[in-house]
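User: Just a sanity check before I run the rest of the batch. Below are the structure tokens for the first item. I only need the designed sequence back.
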């Protein structure tokens, strides 16, 4: 009974916080709501005995990825007023994409793939490790999808770096080709001075 209450409480909190991510106007607030979404999702995974996924979600996404998101959002200096100008113009396209995504999710959830067996689950042995089982499935059956996800994350890192690197007039840049052409005589001057005589 208590597990059902915990599930519904955190499921509602997850849906509300995820809705706030895409509805709030301030991008920093959206990132913080996404942190709350990750935390509530981790609690749901913990209640489903997926401890490794819950800890990985908190450590990797909340501890590293969200910090990166917040830094990037703050460094980009996004003009919110300019972004709102085309909201009404792209609203029909956004609603169409949202309807297509909702239809795809409903078709997947209502398919026979997710039909659960109503029987009692078999008890796991004492030495069972869901982390080991997850690693075995991840690096055998889903290794191609795992590699694609790694490439997508690499592209996201490169995109974040390229977006934040802006050329400023007051910034001094180095030219490596000119540095390689420098000779010792151009940078070093040896001055000969008479030694001090002791009295």
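Assistant: Here's the designed sequence for the first item:
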């Amino acid at each position: 009974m208590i597990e059902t209450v915990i599930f519904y409480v955190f499921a509602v909190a997850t849906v509300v916080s995820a809705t706030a991510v895409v509805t709030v106007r301030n991008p920093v607030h959206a990132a913080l709501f996404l942190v709350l979404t990750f935390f509530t999702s981790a609690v749901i995974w913990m209640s489903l005995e997926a401890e490794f996924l819950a800890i990985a979600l908190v450590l990797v996404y909340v501890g590293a990825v969200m910090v990166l998101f917040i830094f990037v959002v703050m460094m980009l200096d996004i003009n919110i007023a300019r972004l709102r100008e085309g909201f009404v113009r792209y609203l029909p396209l956004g609603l169409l994409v949202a309807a297509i995504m909702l239809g795809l999710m409903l078709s997947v959830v209502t398919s026979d793939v997710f039909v659960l067996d109503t029987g009692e689950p078999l008890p796991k042995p004492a030495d069972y490790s869901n982390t080991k089982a997850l690693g075995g499935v991840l690096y055998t059956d889903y290794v191609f999808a795992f590699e694609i996800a790694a490439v997508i994350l690499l592209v996201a890192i490169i995109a974040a770096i390229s977006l934040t690197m802006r050329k400023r007039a007051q910034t001094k840049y180095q030219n490596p080709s000119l540095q390689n052409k420098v000779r010792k005589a151009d940078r070093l001057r040896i001055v000969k001075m008479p030694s001090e005589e002791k009295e």
